[in-house]
Amino acid sequence: FKVSMNRSSTPNSAVIEAFNLNPTSIALAQDPTSVVEVRVGYDVPLLIFRGNPVKDGVRLDRQGTDTVLRIEAQDGGRAYRSARVSVGYSTNTTAQQVFDAVAEQMGLPQGTIRVPADVTFPRGITLNGPARDVLDRLSTSLGCEWFVRDGVLQFVGAGEDTGESAVVFSATAGNLIGSPTPKDDEKLEVKAL
Question: C-alpha distances in angstroms, 43 versus 40, 56, 89, 182?
Answer without folding.
Answer: 10, 34, 49, 30
